[in-house]
Amino acid sequence: MVEATGTTAPAEGVRYKRVLLKVSGEALMGQRDYGLDPEMVNRIASEVKAVIALGVQVCLVIGGGNIFRGVKGAASGMERASADYIGMLATVMNALSMQSALERMGVSTRVQSAIPMSTVCEPYIRRRAVRHMEKGRVVIFAAGTGNPFFTTDTAAALRASEMGCDGLLKGTQVDGVYTADPKKDPTAQHYERLTYMDVLTKELQVMDASAIALSRENHIPILVFSIHTPGAFAEVMQGRGKHTIITEERE
Ligand code: UDP
């Protein structure tokens, strides 16, 4: 099993000791309209493995939008809280598939769910999760925050704060934050650095406002990069590659 070096220092040139990677459920869909593309799950797992090999402790939050979104369920007449619980259960399915992909590659993992389901995975226990990470295991946090009316972005900022992460990585469809959607607007400009306030006041589509506010309060830099560029996650860990970094100050 591949494990990060735990309490020893990360490899030379690596700027982070412990990070949380947030991947949306949609990233696991690949070219499909729904569900999981095993090839995509494997690709993302190999990105995580590369970062573990650098000696960085990694935990993950995976969304559920590839299977179910509470807002959509509510729009079709379902009670919002129930719809959100279905969404949270969707994230558990994604977490289990990521666990399976990582373990097949020899990476040691644990899934911890905010909604206890003891026959499937561990319940979320903060100190236990920290211990797993110190031992170099990848902890995958499932079921979001465990509360309806929240998102997995907020869950990612919450868990990153609880775990004492020094970086919150958001793996997206594009290589950072732009002035507009670069897939629709060819004049869109890439931001190298932004402040939390910039994201909130310019209403940039990075993460929802509560996730930004929580990261800001806990001084956790947010790094936005493309989950589709092979090797990008490891490069960002070394301060290289194209990405956007969001902190309190612009410099
Ligand atoms: N969800 C929730 N509470 C949480 C996290 C998620 O109720 O703390 C539900 C919500 O319905 C959401 C769904 O789970 O629509 C899937 O999560 P999200 O939309 O954040 O996934 P992503 O967009 O990242 O794939």
TrEMBL record:
Its EC number is 2.7.4.22. Pathway: Pyrimidine metabolism; CTP biosynthesis via de novo pathway; UDP from UMP (UMPK route): step 1/1. GO terms for biological process: 'de novo' CTP biosynthetic process; UDP biosynthetic process. The keyword Aminoacyl-tRNA synthetase does not apply. InterPro entries: AceGlu_kinase-like_sf, Asp/Glu/Uridylate_kinase, Uridylate_kinase, Uridylate_kinase_bac. GO terms for cellular component: cytosol. It is an enzyme of class 2 (transferase). Inhibited by UTP. GO terms for molecular function: ATP binding; UMP kinase activity. It catalyses: UMP + ATP = UDP + ADP. Its main location: cytoplasm. UMP binds at G64, D84, T145, G146, N147, P148, F149, F150, T151, T152. It is found in: Cytoplasm. Homohexamer. This is Uridylate kinase. It comes from Azospirillum lipoferum (strain 4B).
